[in-house]
Amino acid sequence: MKKLINRVGLNGHALKFDLKMRLTLLLLFISLFRIEASSYSQNIRVSVDLEHVTVEEFFRTVESMTSYRFLYNHRDVNVSRIINVYASKEPLSGVLKKVFGDTDISYKVVDHQIVLNTLSPVEKTDDNGKLQKKLITGTVRDKNGMPLLGVTVLIKGTQQGTTTDEDGKFSIAAEEDDVLVFSYIGFLSREIQVEAEQEINIRLIEQTNELGEVTVTGYQTISSERTTGAFTKLKSEDFKSQRLNSLDAVLAGRIVGYQDGVIRGVTSMNGLTTPLYVIDGFPVEKTRYNENYGLEENLPDLNIEDIESITVLKDAAAASIYGARAANGVVVITTKKAKAGETNISFSSNLTVSPYRFYTGNLTNSADIIALEREWALGNPNLGGTDGTSASYASSLLENAVYGSQGMQALLHYYAGNITESELNGTLDQLGTAGYRYYDDIARHAKRDQYYQQYNVSFGKASQKNSFNASVTYKNNTFEDRYSEENSLGINLKNSTKITDWLDMDLGAYIHFNNEDLQTFDPLNPGFVYQPYNRLVNADDSPFVSTAASRYNRSTLQSIDTYNLYSMDIVPMDELGRNLKKHKNFLSRTYAKFNVKLSDAFSYNAMFQYEYGVERISQLKDKNSYAVRQRVNGLVTLSSANNAVFNLPYGDISFRGDQYTNAYNFRQQINFDKFFEDIHQVSVIAGTELRHSKLEYSDYTRYGYDSQTLTYTPVNQADLLQAYGSVFGGYMSQNDFSVERELLNRYFSVYGNAGYTYDGKYNITGSLRWDRSNLWGTDNKYQNRPTWSAGAGWNIHNESFFSYSRVDMLKLRFSYGIGGNVAKNSAPYLTAYYNSNNNVGGVQGSINSRPNPQLSWEKTTTANLGIDFALFNNRLNGTIDVYNKKGEDLLANSMGVPTEGWGYSTYTLNNGEMTNKGIEISLSGSILSTEDFSWNAGILYAYNKNKVNYVNVEAPVYYLQLDYPSAYPRVGKNFNSIYGYSWAGLSSTGLPQVYDADGQAVSSNPADLEAIEDFGTTVPVQSGSFNTSVSYKNFSLSALFIYELGHKIRNTFLPMFGNSYSGASGGYIANIRPGNKRIRDRWINPGDEAHTDVPRVVYEYDTEYSYDLQSIYSYADVNILNASNLRLSNVSLAYQTSALAPRLGIENVRINFNVENVFTVAANRDVKYLLGGYRTPNFVLGLHVNL
Amino acid sequence: MKKLYTTILYLSLVVLGFSSCNDYLDDIPKGSRIPQTLADFEALIRDEYTNHRVDIRQAEILLNDRFITEATLSFYPLDKANYLWDESADRIALNRSDEATYYTGYAGISTFNLIVENALSSTEASEAEQRELWAQAKVLRAMSYFNLVNYYADTYEAGNAADKRSVPLITSADINAPSSQVSILELYDFIVGDIEEAIPYLPRVSQTVLHPDLGTGYALLSRVYLQMANYGEALNYADMALDEHDDLYDWTAYYNDNKAVIEDPDAYVTTPSPMGFDYVENYNFRHGSLSRIATENNILTDRADRFEPGDARFLSRWKVRTVGAETFYNSTLSGYFNYGGITTVEVYLIKAECLARTGQTGNAMDMLNRVRKTRILPDVYQDLEATGEAGAIEAIMNTKRNELILTIIPFCDARRLNAEGIYTVGFTKTYNGESYALTPDSHLWTMPFPQGATDNPGNGTIVQNVNK
C-alpha cells in the first residue's frame, strides 16, 4: 500500500506548517492529500513519502499538492518506472534530483513549470528516412525586443513542452504541422504552426501594459488596452483604508465625476438619475415603495468586503451596451474569486463610534426665546389697555389654549391677573437661564452614542478545476434614538467549476437578512410646543408630563371629562420605547452561468439570475401610547343621548406591511474572440436579454389587536369612514385599513458589440442595442430606435516610432454614442384608477394619466475624448476625459392647462434637451518609494457644466418657478438652478424687501416671473478629492479630502419665525420657536436696516403681518448661500504585519484606526450647518486578519 | 457538440420569438385601468374630489358670510380686498396663483366632457344606459358652467348678454382641446341646451345622489331661468322639480335631539351634519371647497344677527365664541354638507319668488312659510305675511340668503337683483373703527380670473371680465 503524507510549506514557516497539519489530518480522510500554500517560491520545500509508485503517480501527487506542472515528452520520459521517494521539507529541486538523478532526464524549474528533457535528444527518422521530428529552436521576446524568461512552449494537444531560458531561447522537438503554443502570464498566447523552418522567433504582446489589467463591462471582460470608452476602475486595494459599510462611501471621492450618487451630472428631468448597478454580470435594482407609496431607488445589498473591483462605465462606448438604462452610467461590481492553488481565510471586524451631539451653536437659547415672548406681549395692542380688556383678552387666549409654551402661558396668566408681576418675572427669569436645557435633556435621556459593529469572514479555495468562495458579513448597529437598532447578515457563496474542457459553470447565491427596529416617537417633534427651556425629566427626576390642560381649550377639556375620554397627557419618556417599527427583510439572489467553448474562437454564454425579496414591516401601537389614545379619542362622536360613542375600539393597533419583489434576468450571448496573423484581434459579442422585475406592496391595519391571543376587533370600515370626531375632529381614510401597490417592469433586448484591434495599437469598437419594454408607448417609431456607440483608441506607446522611455503608456481614445434612460412609472395610455366610494357606495374612478402615446425612453448622446498615461515606470498614472453629454427626448414637465381641467397637474412629454459638458482628471503617483518608506498621492478633479438647451414649457406661474425649479427649467440655464428674488435690504420699518420686475424694492411678493432670477446651481460645478498616504515600515497613514465648489444652497434655517394656521385661534399666528440665533441681530429700531439683513419679527397682531414677508425673505438671494466646501472625509492609520505568521499561522494582520467625517470647511456657519458639517466624526477601530 | 448547437438554437428561437414578446411587454400597470365599459365611465362621476368640489371662497368673503381673523386677512391680501370691499385693490394682481373655483370647476368639466364624448360608445351597456350617463354628465357640466359664469363674468342681462364675454367654453377632454371665451348669451344657451337635451334621458331615480336625476334636471333649469330673470320658465320647472321631490328636513326636530350640546354655551363639540349625502332635501349632492368630512366655516357676529330668532337650523350650526380679541360664531356641525348641489329648499324659494313676481303674493308666502315651519322653533314661529311684491320678495330673499348661506346662490341672487336694480343688495359695516361699504353696482361683484389660468390658457385665450 502507498502511504501518502504530503506536506508543503514555505521556508521557515514551521509553526504555520504544524498548525495546518492538524487541519490536514482532518481533511486527509476526505481527499488523502491537500494543497496548501498561499504563495510559492523557487525555494519551495516539499515533504513526500511515496513507496512503490510510478513516476506518473509521483507527477500527479506533486501537481495536486502544488501549483507546479510537469512538462515533458512521453517518448523521452519513462513514466511507468517504479520509484520510492521520501523527503521531509526538502527543496523541490532536491526531490527531483532523487527521482531523476540517475536518468538522462534533465529538470528545470521555471516559474510554475517543471520542464523535463532528455539530455541528448535523438533525431529519429521514419521508414522513408524523412525526419519525423526535428529540433525547433528560437527566441521569444516582448514588444520591445527584450527576451522573455520562462515562456511555456507546448505542442498543442500534448503535454510535451519546454520553457525559455534567460535569453528567451528555447528548443523543442516537434513534427511538421504540430502547433506550438507560446504562453506567458500577462501576455496574449500565440500559436505557431511548425513548417519547414527550424527556427521560430516570435514576440508576445502583453495583455495590458499593467499585468492583468482588464476591464469588466458586465457583458464581457476585455483587456484595458483594447477599450475605447471612459472606464474608471477601483480595486479592493484602493479602498482598504475605508470602512466598508456602504457602496457610496467607497465610491465618493474615488471615482472622478461621481458626486452625490450621480455620475457626470443629472441628465434627466423626470426619469431616473441614479446609475445602474451590476453585480457579477447582472443588473441589480433595488426599487422599493416608501412609506408614502412612492418609488425609491436604493443601493443594492452586497457584502462589500467581497468586492474585488468596481468599474464605473461613464461614456457611451462603455455603457451603451446597457441600452435603456445606460444614460446615467453603470457601476459594475465583481466579487472575489479564489485563484488556483490558493486557500484564503480572512477575518475582519470593525467597531465604529459616533458620539451623539445636537448642535446648538447657531440656535436660539432660552434667553432669546423669553426675550421674544416678552416682545410679543409688549407689542400686543390688546394687552396695553387698562380697562380690563387686557385681562379678558389674556384669559380668553388661555382658555382657548392658543399659545402652548410655558413662557407665553406665564405672560398670559400675568395679564389675566392670575399671577403678580414679580411672579411672572421670577418664572421668566428662571426659564431664561435654562440655556439649551431641552436639547441637553434629550442628549442625556433620549439619545445615545451610535455604535456600528461589522464582522466579515471570507473563505476561498480553488484548484485547477474549481474555485469556491464564501463570505459572511454580520452588522450590528445601534442608532442615536435609544430604541433604534439594526442588524444584518449577508451570506455570499460562489462556485466556479470547469465541468469539461468546453463547459464552465458558475453558481452563486447571495442571501441577506436584515432586522431593524425604528423608534417612532421623536422628542424633537413630541406633539406639544417646546422651547429650549423645556425639560424631558423634571428636577426631581420624575418624567416631564405635557398635560392635556396645557394644550387644549376649556371646551375640549370639559369634554374629555364629561365623556370619559382617554387621557391626552403626553409623557415623552414613556413614549420613546412605544410603537417601534420593526422591519424584517430577506433578499436572495441566485444565479447560474454556463460558458460553452464552441471552438477556439467561439463561445456561448447563458446566464440566469433570480432575485426574491421580502420586506416586512410591523408596528404594534401600544394602547397606552399617546398615538392610540389620540386616535381613539379623535373618532369619538356623540350619541343623541349625549354620550360618547367610541367608534374605534380601544386597544393595540397592529400595522403590517409586506413588500415582495421578484426579478429575473436571462441572457444568452455568443462570443467570438480571435487573434489573426499576430496582428488582428477581433472580438464580437451578440446576445439577447430578458428582464423582469416586479414589486408588490400591501399593508393592513387591525384595531383592538391582542398580540397574545392574536385576535383583533372587527370594525365597520364603511361607518368609520363616515365618522368625524365630535371633540377632536378625527377621521379616517381607506389607507388606515389597507393599501396595495404593484409595479411591473419588463424589458426585452437584443444587443451586440464588436471590437477590433490592429497590432495592439489601434482599437475600434461599436455597440448596438434594441430595447423594448412595457414602460413605453405603443408607438413603434419610438420603441425600435436603438442605442448605439462607436469608439476608437490609439495605443501610442505601442508604436515603433514612440520611444520615450519615461512614458510607459500613452493612449488616446474617442467615443460617441447614445444611451437610454427610463421613468419607471410612466405609461402611454389614458388610465384611471378605481377604488371604492365610501360615501355613496360603488366604485369611483379618477383619471390619473392622460394619454401620452409618444412616450419613449430618453436618449443621451455622449461624446468623450480621453487620454490615459503612465509615466516614469508607472510611478505617475493619469487619465483625462473631456465629455459632452447631451440629453434629448427628456421627459419634461408640462403644467396642465387649468381650462382643460388639469391645472393642478403636471404631465410629462419627451421634449426636453440638456447638456452636461465636463472635464475629468485623475492623477495618482508614487512620490517617494524606498524599501521602508513610501508616499503616494492622488487627485481627482471633475468639472461639470449643465445647461438646459430646450424645453417647451415655461413656469406658468411665478411660484412654480420658485418651488419646482426642476419642473420648469429655463432654457440656457443650469437644470439645477436655484431661482429667487433679488434682495433689496430691509425697509425703514424692518421688513424684508426684494426687487420686483421694474427694479422697485417691495415688501410684497412681486409674483412675477420677470422678477425671478437664476442664482446658481445646487450641484457642484467642480468636485473631486485629494488623497494621500504615507507608509513607513508597517505603518501607514492616509487621508481623503473631498471638495465641492461653485454651487449654492438655499438657507432653510432662517432667523425668522414661520407662520401656521392655529385651529385654536381660527387664524394664522407667528410661531415663536427655536430657530437661527441670528434673530438676535434682527431689526429693532429705525436705522437698524443700515447694518442688518435680519428682518423685524412681525407678530400676528401687527398690521404689517403678511404671508409675503416670509415668502420673499426665504426666496431672496440673501438666503442663497455659497455651498462650496472641503471635507476631510476619512483619515486612517494602519499597522500591518506579517510577523505573526510563523508563530500564529496568521499570514498578515492589519489594524486600523479611522476617523470619518473629520471636519468640514464652508463659507459660513449657516452653510456648514446646512451641509451637516457639525455632525460629530465617526471613530473606527478595525482589524483585518488573513490566515 | 452538434446536439448542443441545436439546443442553443432552439433556446434562442424561444427568446427571440417576437410575437410572444409583444404579449410579454403588453402589460398595463396594475392599480389602474383604461376606461372602456359604461361602468368604467360611470364610476368617474363618483369621484367627488375631482368632480364635485364647488369652491366659492371669494364670493363668501365678499358677502361677509364667513369669519376671517385679522391676522389671516393681512396674510392673504385678496381675502382682505374682498372682505373689506376695497374697490381700489387690484384683485387681478392679488389673485396671482391658482384658484380652486376655476381649477376644480374645470376639472369637473373635463371629466364630464370625457363622459359626454365616450358614453355613447362605451361597452357593456344598452343604448338607454349609455344615454342616461351621457345626459347626467351634461347636467353636471351645465351646473359647473353656471357656477363659473356667475363668478368670473358679469351677471346675465337680456339686454347685453350677447355683447359681454363669459368664461372659456371647452367641450372636449383631449389634450390641447380648443376653448373659446364665448358671450354670456352663448354660454347660457349652451347650459340651457345641455340640460334640455339631457332631460329626456334622465332617470326618475338615479344610481347615487351624485348622479343627477330628473328632479335635478328640472331644478337646475329652474335655477338657470331664474338667473336669466325668466320667471315664468323658472316657475314652470320649479313645479316640475317639486313634483319629482319636495321633502323638507325638520330642523326643529334636529334641534331637540341635540339640545344638550346645542344649548351648553361652553361646549364646542360638534354634532353630526344632517346635510350630507342622505339629506332629504337633496336633488343631487356636491361638496363645497372640501370633499372630506369637515366642519363648516365660522361666521361673523353681524351675519349671525341677520338670522331669524329661533331659527333651529342656525342654532344647530353655529355658537358664539371669543378667542383673544375676536368674537365670532363657531361652527358646531361636522360631516358632509351639500353646498354645491341642488336642494328642495332652493326650489321652494325660487317658486316663492316667481309667484311673488307674478302677483301671487299669498301663494308665495305660503311657500315661504312651508319652509320656515321646518326651521323656526315652534315657540317663536309665526307665519310671515306680505301685502305686495316688494314685501314678499324681501321676506323670501332674507330666508333664501340664510337658508343657502355658503352656497353660490346668495351671490347669484345678489348680482341678479342688483342688475335688475329694484331690490338691490349692498352692505355697510364698521371694522376696527373704519366704515366700509359694498355698493350694488360695485365691480367687486365680478371676480377676476386667477393668474394661473390667464397665463396658461391652453388652446384659447382668456380676457379678464373685470378691470381689477
Q: What does the oligomeric state look like here?
A: heterodimer
Cross-sheet strand order for the largest sheet of chain B = 3-8-5
Label the CATH architecture of the largest domain in chain A: Beta Barrel
Distance between the termini of chain B: 87 Å
CATH architecture of chain B: Alpha Horseshoe
Number of helices of chain B: 22
Question: Percent of residues of chain A in helical segments?
Answer: 10-25%
Question: What is the residue-mean pLDDT of chain B, rounded to a whole number?
Answer: 92
**Name of the CATH class of chain B:** Mainly Alpha
In the CATH scheme, what's the topology name of the largest domain in chain A? Maltoporin, Chain A
Helix content of chain B: 40-55%
Number of domains of chain B: 1
Number of domains of chain A: 3
Number of helices of chain A: 19
The Cα radius of gyration of chain A reads 37 Å
Strand content of chain B: 5-15%
The coarse silhouette of chain B is globular
Please mark out the parts of chain B with pLDDT under 50 across 5 or more consecutive residues, or reply none.
none
Key features?
heterodimer, A: 1187 residues, mainly beta, Maltoporin, Chain A, 19 helices, 59 strands, B: 468 residues, mainly alpha, Serine Threonine Protein Phosphatase 5, Tetratricopeptide repeat, 22 helices, 48% helix, globular, TPR-like_helical_dom_sf (chain B)
Brief overview, please?
The complex is a heterodimer of chains A (1187) and B (468). Chain A is mostly beta strands and 1187 residues long.
Walk me through the structure.
The complex is a heterodimer of chains A (1187) and B (468). Chain A is mostly beta strands. Chain A folds into three domains: 1-109, no CATH class; 245-339 and 451-522 and 577-976 and 1018-1047 and 1123-1127 and 1156-1180, Maltoporin, Chain A; 977-1017 and 1052-1118, no CATH class. In chain A, the strands form 15 sheets. Chain A has a 22-stranded antiparallel β-barrel. In chain A, strands 16-23-24-19-20 form a five-stranded mixed beta sheet. Chain A has a four-stranded antiparallel beta sheet with strand order 9-8-11-12, with no helix packed on it. In chain A, a hairpin with a 4-residue loop joins strand 14 (214-216) and strand 15 (221-223). Chain A is elongated. Residues 1-42, 121-126 and 208-212 of chain A have low confidence and may be disordered. Chain B has 468 residues and is mainly α. Chain B has a single domain (38-250, 339-454), classed as Alpha Horseshoe (Serine Threonine Protein Phosphatase 5, Tetratricopeptide repeat). In chain B, helix 19 packs parallel to helix 20. The model of chain B has no long low-confidence stretch (mean pLDDT 92). At the A-B interface, helix 7, helix 11, strand 36, strand 40 and strand 41 of A face helix 1, helix 2, helix 3, helix 4 and helix 6 of B. Chain B: InterPro entries: SusD-like_N, TPR-like_helical_dom_sf. Chain B: This is SusD family protein.
